[in-house]
Amino acid sequence: MATTSDIRKGLCIRFNNDIYKIIEFLHVKPGKGPAFVRTKLKSVTTGKVVDNTFSAGHKIEDVRVETHKFQYLYNEGETYHFMNTDDYSQIQLQRDALDSYELMKEGEVVTVIINSEDSMPLSVEMPPSVVLEVTATEPGVKGNTATNATKPATVETGARVNVPLFINEGDKIKIDTEKGQYQERVKE
């Protein structure tokens, strides 16, 4: 059993007869009243995100997990296929278990979180950023660029990302996988 002081991003807990992964948390100590922890939890079975507030010192049941490196192979509709980079065994996961599936390209190495008790895959963690090639974007229009002007671009995986006006088709860009935002242009 863990307490609210053990809460951290990525921790898997048993809550309301389901397993949830903590995706955001905030310890709050108001001027009046007891401290509490405001959390955003994502169900690893359904992908549903819920907000919950735990009072300080509340007991939570954490789930023992293992992490393994898997290589993304391909997808068939809603089913995504991965291969373990150590023993070459393959697993299939539904789109709900993936956080940023639209930014995954074939061959990408990801971290799969597996429940130690029943060896079931719980979720997939992407690397902090990925480098993808821009396949389609409109030419930048000069004009009112006193602030950060952006335009939509489509990358090789089909995801749409807002990029600065100087990005052209064929450029490689680094994308933050957590927010799905452009970080920088990558030179070969």
Folded structure, characterized:
This protein has 188 residues and is mainly beta. It has 3 domains: 61 residues, SH3 type barrels, CATH 2.30.30; 61 residues, Nucleic acid-binding proteins (OB fold (Dihydrolipoamide Acetyltransferase, E2P), Beta Barrel), CATH 2.40.50; 58 residues, Nucleic acid-binding proteins (OB fold (Dihydrolipoamide Acetyltransferase, E2P), Beta Barrel), CATH 2.40.50. It has no helices and 16 strands. The radius of gyration is 20 Å and the shape is flat. The termini are far apart. Belongs to the elongation factor P family. This is Elongation factor P.
Structural class: mainly beta
Strand order of the largest sheet: 1-6-2-3-4-5
Instruction: Assign the CATH topology of the largest domain.
Output: SH3 type barrels
Helicity level, as a percent range?
Answer: under 10%
What layout of secondary structure does this protein have?
Layout: E1 2-3, E2 12-15, E3 18-28, E4 36-43, E5 49-55, E6 59-62, E7 65-76, E8 79-84, E9 90-94, E10 109-115, E11 121-125, E12 129-137, E13 150-155, E14 160-164, E15 172-176, E16 181-186
Antiparallel strand pairs: 1-6, 2-3, 2-6, 3-4, 4-5, 7-8, 7-10, 8-9, 10-11, 12-13, 12-15, 13-14, 15-16
